[in-house]
Design a protein that fits this description.
The complex is a heterodimer of chains A (245) and B (218). Chain A has 245 residues and is an alpha/beta fold. Chain A contains 9 helices and 10 strands. Chain A has one domain: P-loop containing nucleotide triphosphate hydrolases (Rossmann fold, 3-Layer(aba) Sandwich). In chain A, 38% of the residues lie in helices and 25% in strands. The radius of gyration of chain A is 18 Å and the shape is globular. Chain B is flat and about 70 Å long. Classes of the chains: A alpha/beta (245), B mainly alpha (218). Chains A and B meet through helix 2, helix 3 and helix 5 of A and helix 6 and helix 7 of B. The structure holds adenosine-5'-diphosphate (ADP) and magnesium ion (MG). Magnesium ion (MG) binds next to helix 1 of chain A. The site of magnesium ion has 3 residues of chain A, from helix 1. Chain B: Pfam families: BPD_transp_1.
Chain lengths: 245, 218
């Protein structure tokens, strides 16, 4: 049973056809990187996986629940599927520690002492133990993103979605975030779907690369195959453009 | 000068203070009820319940665009016409509450709307339900943004109670009128006293607002 499976999924924003006949299967523990030009539907695709966007046709199975079915309780899926956003979306009215402890307390009813221990361990892992009592507005972008990752991990998710997690960061803070993400990919066995233009990250930890354009998946290959031998003309062009930078 | 000294006899001042007390009573009761009603209406308009939100939105817009004085007349004379008799005090309080509920509903709705959508998305993606996200993340942030406009609306409300003079509510302005009605030399002294009293009450309220803002900002 795949962790995530799209079967002939179609998605519209009013008349605009944002996702066209998407078929994609992600197995448990796999790391999949999604790339493609701006406006190609990467965010839309990844946001359907935890129900932030609804799909209109087809089937979208996430941990055995069909998200295309209106009767499915989305809250059950979100418990198991975390998401890291381009702009972090940390809770502005909560301290860093509370950001991490809130959902486990409210949603999982985790014991308070254990909750705190897990949160502090995670802060240690992302290298920000000294920020426990800070508020999000006091953090740099790179720090915020690492806290956001810690917040997602605290829920012990089966899958984690990343939507351009380093695109809003200053260049010198990107590596800290990528390092945390690589560690998750290598050690935790969590299924990861990552929209990113960081090709070094993709080469190092991705099992597969998916290339999107105009709401379609044009190429879906193993990482080595994709970089060494891309088939689609548009994928080749796109690659040569971003690798030049 | 002697006019001032004579005008400010203890008797007159006490009479003014009685009026001030009525002003404050009407204001406090209206503020409490209109805050509760405004919060319910504002939230309903925000969360978009099919049909209901549109109807609530229409009623809010309708009331907001009527003069308070007209609402006062409706309540006082209009209700009496259909057999509902309210005292002057409760007519004034009801009219203020209806009007202020609509004003506060809009302040509350736009306060919630001013919270970045990313906050709710973060909460939802983190596993919180919509209501948990609203209660724990969005509303506390919205409240902080709402305090200044809420308090300035409360200040308008206090000042607007003077409109109820027209239906002979014995509030501050009305009592002042009675005092200078007996002696025209007292007109200016009474206006000065009125200004001082309204100012003290309203300014105290804005100090409370500033204090709250600072506390919530942390
Ligand atoms: N909420 C929305 N309403 C209408 N159109 C949208 C919305 N979100 C995205 N789109 C459109 O869908 C297309 C894909 O957007 P997106 O998924 O954000 O692409 P990407 O993440 O690849 O840049 C774009 O043309 C965008 O304008
Ligand atoms: Mg995007």
């Amino acid at each position: 049973m795949a962790m995530i499976e799209f079967k002939n999924v179609e998605k519209y924003y009013d008349k605009f056809h944002a996702l066209k006949n998407i078929n994609l299967k992600v197995e448990a523990g796999e790391v999949v990187v999604i790339i493609g030009p701006s406006g190609s539907g990467k965010s839309t695709l990844i946001r359907t996986i935890n129900g932030l966007e609804q799909v209109n046709e087809g089937q979208l199975l996430v941990t055995n629940f069909d998200l295309a079915d209106k009767k499915t309780n989305i809250d059950k899926i979100r418990k198991n599927v975390g998401m890291v956003f381009q702009h972090f979306n940390l809770y502005e009215n909560k301290t860093v520690l509370e950001n991490i402890m809130l959902a486990p307390r409210l949603v999982l009813k985790r014991d308070e002492a254990e909750n705190k221990k897990i949160a502090l361990d995670l802060l240690e892992t992302v290298g920000l133990a000294d920020k426990a009592q800070s508020y999000p507005r006091m953090l740099s972008g790179g720090q915020s993103q690492r806290i956001a990752i810690a917040r997602s991990l605290a829920m012990k998710p089966k899958a984690l979605l990343f939507d351009e997690p380093t695109s809003a960061l200053d260049p010198e803070t990107i590596d800290d975030v990528l390092k945390v993400m690589k560690d998750i990919a290598k050690n935790e066995g969590i299924t990861m779907i990552v929209v990113t233009h960081e090709m070094g990250f993709a080469r190092e930890v991705a099992d597969r690369v998916v290339f999107m354009a105009d709401g379609q998946i044009l190429e879906d290959d193993t990482t080595a195959e994709f970089f060494d031998n891309p088939k689609e003309e548009r994928a080749k062009k796109f690659l040569s453009k971003i690798i030049k930078h | 000068m002697s006019d001032f000294i004579a005008a400010y006899s203890w008797e007159n001042i006490r009479y003014l203070l009685q009026g001030l007390l009525v002003t404050i009573e009407v204001s406090v009761i209206s503020i409490i009820f209109s805050f509760i009603i405004g919060a319910i209406l504002g939230l309903t308009r925000y969360i978009k319940v099919k049909r209901l939100s549109a109807i609530v939105g229409f009623v809010i817009d309708l009331i907001r665009n009527l003069p308070l004085l007209l609402i006062l007349f409706f309540v006082y004379f209009g209700l009496a016409n259909v057999g509902i008799r309210l005292s002057i005090f409760w007519s004034a309080t009801l009219a203020m509450t209806v009007f202020e509920s609509a004003m506060l509903a809009e302040i509350i709705r736009s306060g919630i709307q001013a919270v970045e959508p990313g906050q709710m998305e973060g909460a939802r993606a983190n596993g919180l339900t919509y209501w948990q996200g609203l209660r724990v993340i969005v509303l506390p942030q919205a409240l902080k943004k709402m305090i200044p406009p809420l308090v300035s609306q409360f200040i308008s409300l206090i000042k607007d109670t003077s409109l109820a003079t027209i239906i002979v509510l014995p509030e501050l302005l009305y009592h002042a009128q009675l005092v200078y009605g007996q002696n025209t030399n007292y007109v200016i002294p009474m206006f000065v006293a009125l200004a001082v009293m309204y100012f003290v009450v309203c300014y105290a309220l804005s100090l409370v607002s500033r204090y709250l803002e600072r506390r919530l900002a942390r």
